[in-house]
Amino acid sequence: MTERAQSASDGPEPGGGGTAAGTAIDAGAELDPVHPVRPPAPRFKPAGLTTAEVAERVARGAVNDVPVRSSRSTTEIVRANVFTRFNAIIGVLWVIMFFVAPIQDSLFGFVIIANTGIGIIQEMRAKKTLDGLAVIGEAKPSVRRDGRTAEISTSEIVLDDVIELGPGDKVVVDGLVGEADGLEIDESLLTGEADPVLKKAGDPVMSGSFVVAGGGAFTATKVGREAYAAQLAEEASRFTLVHSELRSGISTILKYVTWMMIPTSIGLIISQLIVKDNNLKDAIARTVGGIVPMIPEGLVLLTSVAFAIGVIRLGRKQCLVQELPAIEGLARVDVVCLDKTGTLTEGGMDVTECRPLGGADAAYVKKVLGALGESDPRPNASLQAIIDAYPDSAEWRCTESLPFSSARKYSGASFSEGDGENNTWLLGAPDVLLPAGDPALEEINELNEQGLRVLLLGRAALELDDPAVATGVKPTALVVLEQRLRPDAADTLRYFEDQDVKAKVISGDNAVSVGAVAGKLGLPGAENTVDARTLPTDQGEMAEVLDGNAVFGRVTPQQKRDMVAALQSRGHTVAMTGDGVNDVLALKDADIGVSMGSGSEATRAVAQIVLLNNSFSTLPSVVAEGRRVIGNITRVATLFLTKTVYSVLLAVLVVCSQVEYPFLPRHLTLLSTLTIGIPAFFLALAPNKERAKPHFVKRVMRYAIPGGVIAAVACFVTYVIARHHYSGPDALKAETSAATLALFLTSMWVLAIIARPYTWWRVGLVGAMGGAFLIVLVVPWLQEFFQLKLEGAVMPWTAVGIAAVAAALIEFTFRWVDRRFPA
């Protein structure tokens, strides 16, 4: 049967749902061990609450009012962007500069305000996008009220509401089962126990669990914050910027930067007060000028902005990112596991043929198929195709039914056929219902090789509730179904192949049929299919089989989970896509879970990414967005941390040599803006298709440390030579100008390296920054504003020469680092 569970469009009639198990009950049992005492719940009402009863409960606040958010609140966004450690340091220094220096030396504070404002605006835009998409993708449970069934928002559920359940539905509040028709609930997300639990009338159900087979209805006994998994659900669906290698790496860097800043700043303060004992204000200004550039203040901002813009871009493509690091995670993926049904194929199917076996009457077979369709109030895609082809016309009475489950691979029903005949029928996977070597299997295999799905209709010799009911089934007919391939699937698989991402098709269907579908889509290795029933249970041996093959059929839900773990044990970063309830465990354990928007509530709840437009072709956009974010942040982080390294080293050299610090805050604000701030903003948002690599901190620091050391030495050497060259009252301004020129040119070369590979706009960006600095040097009022004026010809050309040597050394060092310490 198909893996994807689809709900029927209409619920049972009021008071219906009636199997023998679906009887009214007194809800007096305990709900769970965490809540051992609770008042008795009202008697189960098959027709649900009345409008008046709902209004009464709303009035007294008995509503499921858990605030499920897809994004941070406005207050949290503002707080996260404004109240940071480095903003506090810069804020204090900014206030000090207002009292001791001209406004030019306070420009760094205005830059921080602008950066913070940009960060808040971009994250608010991302919040608006996420909130809008979350409403579209929100699960809407079916609730009975006034004898009718309607879909409502989860937040509108009230205490004692009667909520219907079908395959793939998530239990959204705690309750007690009132009706059960083969209802099997998976509580693994709460208990860790993978085996589904058969629920009967009177049994408790907990929020956070989901239905794997059958159907029923339950009465809500705990809503809102009292529900068992309310807090868990709220956390799981919240937009977050944490738990990503990128952000944790930046946090690690900032922690070390803070520890470097403290002793360096203290030494700089003391040395400048001693050197400038006759000019306190100038000493303070130069001290602040040395401290401010040590702070990579724009790095966190640009990371947040890059992620936020990624969310907005993906939102325009109807892709809901439920956990922000998923953008980054999918960019690191090297294996993507694809569920065939609903991912490579569309959910719907068509019956192309019905072949009676053993001389069975074709008209009678169609009656049986029609009755089987009628016996399931919530048919899956395969059964829906049978219902469409063979509508029920026989007046047979269903005495018992067995809903389809992915673990069993079949469904069934017992009928009283009106003429005194009572028969039990099974419909499911032929290779599960028939013994090996059965003559019918050869015929079935030929159909599977054409990519067709085949179901076997068989008469059971045992009762439906017998665990061995599938033993001794008499084959009666083959139902041939054709699946609709997604038109975008082939191009998407080709994209993953081009990007060196291995695709593994993992399906519960017949292995030959799955291989035929994968072959039609051009998946490499599709001709070598593996029946998962032959897979070894040892994780290492399973990983070896998985690495060597691409298509797997007859995979159980637990095996999907084991296969993901086996791939991860080999160091692979694994993404799992799916839309059926049988994919939930694997989606949960994969590094990145991707669900289709039309998938079951359970799959959407555990997935980090939901493709609301059900388009598999959206995945390359998510991968590309992640690569853009990671690759570009790695680039700009090198710029920011090169500045931090040369600022700390310059301060150390100044302290050790007991000379005046060469720069005022205005000089380094100008340098930071032209060589880091403006270029970094454009580079962070540029296209980048390079596959993400691990070890972010190592990859950044292997360039930032040598680049920063060379820049600091070049600047300090120029400054020392200038101190011996110039004399007189204005000597310090000339010395500062020469040192600024050397540091700017050296930093520009670092930027030129980081901007590679060159495109017209990258060349233009680097050229524009150089041109802007040249304008400052030649326009008189800008010279005065920034206190930059090159005196004479010897020292400026000396600074250019030193910067050229430094640039050549940086080029050589970066290339040597690439060879010696490959990332």
CA-based shape:
elongated
What is the CA-CA span between the terminal residues? 46 Å
Please give the share of residues in helix.
40-55%
- Low-confidence segments, ≥5 residues, pLDDT <50? 1-39, 231-243
**What class would the helix/strand composition place it in?**
alpha/beta
How many helices in DSSP terms? 27
Commentary on this structure:
Helix content is 49%, strand content 15%. The protein has 823 residues and is of the alpha/beta class. The strands form 3 sheets. The protein has an 8-stranded mixed beta sheet, with helices on both faces. Strands 1, 2, 3, 4, 5, 6 and 7 form a 7-stranded antiparallel beta sheet that branches. A 6-stranded antiparallel beta sheet has the order 10-15-14-13-12-11. Helix 25 packs across helix 26 (780-786). Mean pLDDT is 81; it is low at 1-39 and 231-243.
